[in-house]
Amino acid sequence: MVVEILKKLISIPSVYGNEKEIADFCESFLKGNPNLSVIRESNSIIAHTHIEPGRKTVALVGHLDTVPGENEFTGEIREGRLYGLGASDMKAGDAVLLQIARELRERDSRFNLFFILYEKEEGPYEENGLKLLFSKYGELLKKIGFAFVLEPTDNAVQVGCLGVIHAWFIFKGKRAHSARPWEGENAIHKGGELLKYLSELKPKPYRFDGLTYYEVLNATMVDYKGGRNIIPEEFRVNLNYRFSPTKSEEEAKRELLKLGNKVGAEVEFTDVSPSGRVCLDNPVLKEFLSRFKVKVEPKQAWTDVAQLSKMGIDAVNFGPGQPHQAHQRNEWVEIKKVEENYRVLKEFLLK
Ligand SMILES: [Zn+2]
Hints:
Elements: H1 2-11, H2 20-31, E1 37-41, E2 44-48, E3 57-63, E4 77-78, E5 81-83, H3 87-103, E6 112-118, H4 129-141, E7 146-149, E8 157-159, E9 163-172, E10 176-177, H5 187-190, H6 192-200, E11 204-208, E12 211-225, E13 230-231, E14 234-243, H7 249-263, E15 266-273, H8 283-291, E16 296-298, H9 305-310, E17 314-317, E18 332-334, H10 335-349
Parallel strand pairs: 3-6, 3-7, 7-17, 8-16
Antiparallel strand pairs: 1-2, 2-6, 4-5, 5-18, 8-17, 9-14, 9-15, 10-13, 11-12, 12-14
Helix pairs in contact: 1-3, 3-10
The structure holds zinc ion.
């Protein structure tokens, strides 16, 4: 049954920014269950059961959009794999979420349950549908004590995540003709110390509750003001910092400011995303991990788990998709994994 829903979701294209049709389908699907209250905001949806005080509240969360891409075998099953754009990332997870919501017609849940499906995950953070839901329904969503975000993890539980900062390191010089460099100051040359420091920097492991996260800092872009025969007056290096889940945004920013000071650069932050808490002490997660034999892994990349974490909601990634299939041409998902993810969550969440 979960596979039938997945096939349906795959048949509705939902490339970033075009989620209306799939949101319409999911909204009416969820409204088909009279035990759920359903809220629609733009192309994002919140559905929840009656909220009984004294019962823990758990959410299943998924994004509805995909990246653009091609698939020659859309809707086909070959060797136990179902093909389609977004099959792994993350319509398989969305299908599990919808099937569990449907089961609630006949069975009760052990928890107050939220089902959250949102638009625009695969683009800039400012447009992110989950962010919009939090800005409008923050009070309601704060009732959630724990969330499973069903991003592709091959059914491993991925805990925590690194924070992300992008910052320009700006070196100022003085413009001059390159035949008479002594009349100016070369801004590019001033960046030498920073580039040397970065090239010698090793990934820094942070062990946390038995999981290892690697903090990394890299130059990813450069820009300048000048020209071929000009001593450049400005040189900028974009630094991409992936910082440990043990650090706050403020601490991480302070470290970069200190580095800027040391190498003589002005620092301009362009993007700051929080890290996700390593929430192995959350009682719902503890119970889940004690009951089911699932792999527990650290999350080295950034996901919306961090956004939930920032709102005070502990969350992990746990989804049936195969991470290596995400954003691939001819994307597929292993049907066995979808059924397994569904079986585990159903057993855990429902009575
Ligand atoms: Zn995804």
